[in-house]
Amino acid sequence: MADLMVIGTDGSVRTSGWNFHERDAAEPAVARAETAAQVPKQAILAAIRATSERHAKNRSIALVGLSATKWHVLFQALIEAESSYNSTAISPKGAYGLGQLMPATARSLGVDRTDPHQNLEGAARYLLAQLGAFQNIDLALAAYNAGPHRVREYGGVPPFAETRAYIARIHRIRARLSGQPAEQSIVHVSTRGTTRPPVVIALH
């Protein structure tokens, strides 16, 4: 019998076995590359655009106030932050490819994570699920990086240095891809379980 994938309203992904599929927030985005043949960057950029255009009318994009163009920039920025366009990148925890998909996540999304086009498809769908669930770009990025359960647990962006840096890096990349000056970004970190104030991260 085929597995059933459920993307919850909170952005979590479960299969018929009811397992959460989330990455360790402390793991580096890219650790090493396997020996599989790399895809040329220009081909990857073309595949990123094709993937973003395929999902450009997804309602989650409108929920966070993005145009189709800005959605494309966000998606490309996420891929750059995750893998630096390395189609064979693999982390110590086993996240693989352009979108750094974990094995169980890829299975639940019905994609072959070793195929660059399917990896991008899975990454786009998972990011869109987080945008739809949290209706906020920073929270969606935090969920992609640390897991939606962490965003729910802390009631906002988790107070993890790696997650804060990840969000700030994606905003820097977005500014560069859009040809805009990189300004200061305030990442509002949840204070639930911590007394730290919101962290201001310079983008230049």
From TrEMBL:
Its EC number is 4.2.2.-. Keywords: Lyase. InterPro entries: Lysozyme-like_dom_sf, Transglycosylase_SLT_dom_1. One of its GO terms (molecular function) is lyase activity. It comes from the Bacteria. Pfam families: SLT. Belongs to the transglycosylase Slt family. Belongs to the virb1 family. This is Soluble lytic murein transglycosylase. It comes from Pelagimonas phthalicica. The lineage of its organism: Bacteria, Pseudomonadati, Pseudomonadota, Alphaproteobacteria, Rhodobacterales. The gene is slt_5.
